[in-house]
Amino acid sequence: MEYKSFIGGAWEETSASTPNINPSDTSDILGHAAVSEAADMDRAIDAAHTAAVQWAASTPQQRFDVLDFIANEILARKAELGELLSREEGKTLPEGIGEAARAGQIFKFFAGETLRQTGDHLASVRPGIDVDVTRSPVGVVGLITPWNFPIAIPAWKIAPALAFGNAVVLKPAELVPGCAHALADIISRSGLPEGVFNLVFGRGSKVGPQLIGSNKVNAISFTGSVPTGRGIAAECGQLLKKVQLEMGGKNPMVVLDDADLDIAVDASLNGAFFSTGQRCTASSRLVVTEGIHDKFVAALEEKMTALNVGHALRSDTQIGPVVDANQLQQDLDYVDIAAKEGSKVVGGQRLNRDTEGFFMAPALVTETTNGMRINQEEVFGPVASVIRVKDYDEALAVANDTEFGLSSGICTTSLKHASHFKAHAEAGMVMVNLPTAGVDYHVPFGGTKGSSFGSREQGAYAAEFYTTVKTAYTLP
Ligand code: ADP
After folding, report:
1. CB of 320 closer than 6 A to ligand 1?
2. How far is the CA of 143 from the centre of ligand 1 (A)?
3. Contacting residues for 438 by C-beta, under 8 A, at least 6 apart
4. 401: closest CA among 224, 245, 247, 254?
5. Whose CA is nearest to atom 22 of ligand 1?
6. Ligand 1 pocket residue status of 144, Cβ below 6 Å
């Protein structure tokens, strides 16, 4: 399979390509992705710039029809797309199919949003004058996406971009070209005018700066690592360009003495280790009060060590491989760092399976303090640590003592503590008796502090980023 860039309505080959390697079995090459260059990116931007005017003038019905077509095809093919996703990214098949379905649901939601326009018609404070407040498209939006949700994240940026009348240039992550290509293929048959949606493969460090720096690109939405995000924010600040960033997390899951132990263990197991811990919302710091600490650690350890790690497409696999060799090394390094910092580690070793893949046993790190590197830096793998605290007040302070603020969880049967935590957790998302990861598609997603920058993604709030508010005064 050749994954070509899609520029101005045409599929484009490049002389260079990179292999798309299955992390469960490195002998399985799914295809080869084009390596586009800065000049290709320029052509994609030009195509989007030219097409933006036409799409901005499209009717809500035209936008609805395009988004609904994309949604229907994704949902009809969710099993096949989910398998492709699991094969190239390594999450288990149910997780892959779930993510594909979610991408379809996101397009459904934004198909609906095309018809639900909002605006205000008001009287002026001056006599005889009317005031209208409306939303216009931003223009051309550059979308830069990571590898960990290869179809859902592109979907939750593309769908609102198109719904609100913008033209798009998508730069997906190098590791997951298959899902981006499949999505572009569906979009190419949706009735969208040529040039409104463009896909450019290639190295982030080569084609990314071109996208961010172009004066024909009006806004950038990025999901990825903190250092890349900071660089993009600085550049966009200099250019006075609208920017939205979703980056890391070091999400706390507080477990109080009065928690239902089974709920707390299951929420932590899911939040910390499912999707191989490769979620920015992963529950990586388990902040546990002393009365329940030992029981909780014992129960979680037992369930964690029973998890079946293996090939993502096997039906008995619960945890797939790590995405690639670099990420695996980073995960193993952090397990080492935690041990050297004086904590106790269960699991965390490299595993061999009957295929050559990046398999790692989930790791639980106990006897840690919040100041340790393992509790301050994002690992992005199946590694969670436990911090013992005295009571709720200390738990809240520890939960908030981080540079990140994406998702924050608490397991408790106390309404008082749950309510206080919802109000005082320094995070964009708060979960009560639920894992920190796993969110709905119709409500806003995003964080505070070092996790996010700019307005929220998803749900009706996505309009803030993908539109510009215009105030018009008329003297009839
Ligand atoms: P991750 O660790 O998730 O790969 P990155 O921030 O490196 O995080 O990558 C996220 C996305 O940003 C990818 O699509 C990548 O190609 C892109 N990217 C990497 N470097 C740059 C850059 N300098 N400018 C723009 N995009 C970049």
Report:
1. no
2. 11
3. 270, 271, 281
4. 254
5. 205
6. yes
Q: Which two tokens stand for residue 269?
A: 């197991």
Our answer on whether the CB atom of 146 is closer than 6 Å to any ligand 1 atom is yes
- Give the per-residue pLDDT at 15: 87
The answer to whether the CB of 115 falls within 8 A of the CB of 191 is: no
The answer, yes or no, to whether any atom of ligand 1 lies below 6 A from the CB of 400, is no
Q: What is the pLDDT of residue 327?
A: 98
Q: Which fold has domain 2-247+442-474?
A: Aldehyde Dehydrogenase; Chain A, domain 1 (3.40.605)
Which atom of ligand 1 is closest in space to residue 171's alpha carbon? 14
Domain with CATH 3.40.309.10 in the chain: 251-432
pLDDT at 381: 98
Question: Which amino acid is residue 280, in one-letter code?
Answer: C
Residue with tokens 């779930």: 98
Q: How far is the CA of 284 from the centre of ligand 1 (A)?
A: 22
The residues carrying an active-site annotation are 246
CB of 292 within 8 A of CB of 256? Answer: yes
Start-end of CATH 3.40.605.10 domains in the chain: 2-247+442-474
With a 6 Å cutoff on the Cβ, whether 204 touches ligand 1 is yes
What does the block give as tokens for 256? 């109080």
**What is the pLDDT at residue 404?**
98
Successive 10-residue mean pLDDT values, the chain, 476 residues = 97 93 98 96 98 98 98 98 98 98 98 95 97 98 98 98 98 98 98 98 96 98 97 98 97 98 98 98 98 98 98 98 98 98 98 98 98 98 98 98 98 98 98 97 97 97 98 97
Residue owning the nearest CA to atom 9 of ligand 1: 224
The ligand 1 atom at the shortest distance from the C-alpha of residue 203 is 16
Q: Which CATH architecture has domain 251-432?
A: 3-Layer(aba) Sandwich (3.40)
In DSSP terms, 170 is beta-bridged to 143, 199
Whether the CB of 202 sits within 6 Å of ligand 1: no
pLDDT, position 13: 85
Which pLDDT score is estimated for 370?
98
202 CA to middle of ligand 1, Å? 11
Q: What radius of gyration, in Å, describes the C-alpha atoms of the chain?
A: 23
pTM of the predicted structure, to 2 decimals? 0.98
